[in-house]
Design brief:
This protein has 21 helices and 7 strands. The protein is of the alpha/beta class and about 450 residues long. The chain has 3 domains: about 110 residues, Alpha Horseshoe (Serine Threonine Protein Phosphatase 5, Tetratricopeptide repeat); about 210 residues, Rossmann fold, CATH 3.40.50; about 90 residues, no CATH class. It is elongated, with a radius of gyration of 26 Å.
Length: about 450
């Protein structure tokens, strides 16, 4: 029998001090989620709930999806009356529990729901408590970028206001450590959206959840889609239309990192950079038109948007992200009638629907390259149909998604040939002539 089993046996026989001593010796040699979970369970059995909570939380820092530690921390918090932090943990871990334990946890959750007073009957309840979905390209890391810092601040403030928050991290990547603070704040977390990562040429074997399941299980009043083009496809492009289909009553906010503006013709910018900037501006505008409200951290961007489009609802969510600011913005959002789903999906994703057979079975880099080829094929089809403007839009997606492939090579030359035809069909001979030297 090893020392870990000795510790468990000692605890089962009531020798708590001996069990703790053995576990602490093992932890001094090597920290694991399993050891911290068992150490915390012994502390909880001994009645020291503070140390138990610390131990379970440390276990989740080492392994954020550890079933035992998630369930134990959730049950501990629920017993302390901290349902705000407990419920997301228990709800997330429920499907992974053994049948008997799952029935027990379900009974506890049902009892909690039955005893919970409605919002209107809660004392000193002056603000409507909302279910809010926040979708980001990954787990927000406040050390990595200004945008991620603002997202973290926003999540913290939403919890301080008492709202139930669910975060979808499209791609977990290597940032699992950024998940733990969210869980500890009582935020429900889902990561690695295998369905949408496939469109980006990223392989993910995670298939434990789907966006449809999430929104059908929880009625979200508000969804905040964080927009950045750092990862080829922005979150709103991939999620907004599906949210409209799965949850038509949800008001959708696009939280944009910056306003992208198409370059002027005479700004002297590199030709490839011009096409890329024009693509990002067009794609961002598509999502703005579909959203209920656009929110910017920069007030200058919000002002520019208001000037350019009278009637476009935009809000400024500044760097401070004070609770009063977010509360006002949320009330503004709730006053808006949710928009209907657009008849046509975002243009950058149309190749996925129109070339399903060509893309079927393709994964990773092979799929991404095949998508780029499909943009060219679609542009040629649109030119043949007498739609040069739409053809130009599809070609520009190559510049916006993969500018590195446009510098040299046979594929780049083929794109420029079709792009030159687009400009000629549009009557822009000056731009068409610029491609002679490319």
């Amino acid at each position: 029998m090893n020392r870990h089993n000795d510790a468990i046996l000692a605890f089962q026989q009531g020798r708590v001090a001996e069990a703790l001593c053995l576990l602490e010796e093992l932890l001094a040699a090597e920290e694991t989620a399993e050891l911290w979970n068992d150490w915390a369970a012994v502390q909880m059995g001994a009645g020291d709930l503070g140390k138990a909570e610390t131990g379970f939380a440390r276990a989740l820092e080492l392994d954020s999806i550890n079933t035992d530690a998630t369930a134990n921390l959730g049950l501990l918090l629920l017993g302390k009356g901290d349902s705000v932090r407990a419920l997301p943990l228990l709800t997330r871990v429920l499907p992974a529990l053994p049948e008997e334990q799952r029935k027990l946890v379900e009974a506890l959750l049902n009892a909690h729901a039955a005893n919970k007073p409605s919002i209107g009957n809660q004392p000193n309840s002056t603000t409507q408590k909302l279910n809010i979905l926040v979708v980001h390209e990954g787990f927000p890391d406040p050390k990595s970028s200004r945008l991620d810092l603002r997202v973290v601040q926003m999540l913290q403030t939403l919890r301080e206001l008492g709202h139930e928050v669910t975060v979808v991290a499209r791609e977990a990547g290597n940032d699992r450590e950024s998940e733990t603070p969210l869980l500890q704040a009582g935020i429900r977390v889902y990561a690695d959206d295998s369905e949408r990562l496939l469109y980006m040429g990223i392989e993910s074997k995670s298939a434990r959840w789907s966006l449809r399941q999430i929104v059908e299980q929880t009625s979200f009043e508000v969804a905040i889609l964080v927009q950045s083009f750092r990862r080829s496809l922005s979150v709103p492009e991939q999620y907004l239309d599906d949210l409209r289909s799965f949850s038509p009553g949800t008001r959708i906010v696009v939280f944009a990192d910056e306003l992208h503006v198409a370059p002027a013709r005479n700004d002297g910018a590199d030709l490839l950079a011009c096409e890329q900037k024009a693509d990002l501006a067009l794609r961002q505008w598509e999502t703005f038109q579909r959203a209920a409200i656009v929110a910017f951290p920069n007030p200058d961007d919000a002002a520019v948007l208001r000037e350019r489009c009278d009637g476009m609802r935009s809000e400024v969510v500044g760097n401070d992200l004070q609770s009063t600011t977010l509360a006002r913005v949320l009330q503004s959002i709730l006053s808006i009638t949710p928009k209907a789903r657009a008849e046509e999906g975002c243009s950058v994703l149309q190749v996925e629907a129109l070339f399903q057979e060509r893309l079927a079975g393709k994964t990773g880099e092979s799929r991404r390259l095949k998508q780029l080829e499909c943009y060219v094929r679609l542009a040629e089809q649109l030119l043949a149909e007498g739609k040069p403007e739409k053809a130009h839009e599809q070609l520009r997606h190559i510049f916006g998604r993969a500018p590195e492939v446009m510098r040299v090579g046979y594929f780049a030359s083929q794109v420029f040939i079709v792009l030159k035809r687009c400009y000629r069909k549009l009557g822009d001979l000056e731009m068409a002539a610029r491609f002679l030297c490319v």
